[in-house]
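REQUEST FORM: STRUCTURE PREDICTION
Request ID: SP-0412
Submitted by: Lab K.M.
Chain count: 1
Length (residues): 202
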Amino acid sequence: MRARDLVSPKGTTRLVVTLPGEQSRFADALKRHSGAAFTTLTDTHDAFTHIARRAVDRLVIMVPFIDKAGAAWAVELFESTAATERFLILRDTSQLMGCGQHGFHLRTLTTGIFDYSFSEEGDETTLGETFHAKIVLADGVSAYVGSANLLRRSRHANLECGMLVDGPGALAVSVLVDSVLAVARPAQPLGTYPRSDLPNVG
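STATUS: Completed
RESULT:
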């Protein structure tokens, strides 16, 4: 059974957030809001894990930025999925070289790492082509679209916000991601990195 056969005709949408913390000004304001008691907020980490576990054929994480904590987060997600294809799309794949052992582990878990960023060499008048979208996609059945990068602050500190879409609405996200993968450049295979570049500390 392929993933698309698991799509429910009735889709659901949930608001996904990372909150700045119990002591934040935002948390205080949210508690005072008259509608807070009737509002369901899904934690970003829980939403990403939900998507990873729903993936059957392909799990795609598409974020422009990643740090050491974010690489560890991505490792958790790729380890929790049964998907046969596990793709990571970044704005600059060299960021992984600064992610320590988690970055190395991440390269061994994925089946493809891609760089979606193009610039016109020698032409400072153009802005180049890249992305700022943040997407986590399980086949065409479940998707997160929002603001959270794979960064320490995005998981623990910043106010991040997005939508978790389960059902037919995720197919549109899948079309977008397919188009990105059609133009993004594959990163170097693991074996082509110089041995001195492979981190040995966490």
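NOTES: The two ends are 39 Å apart (CA to CA).
Reviewed by: T.R.
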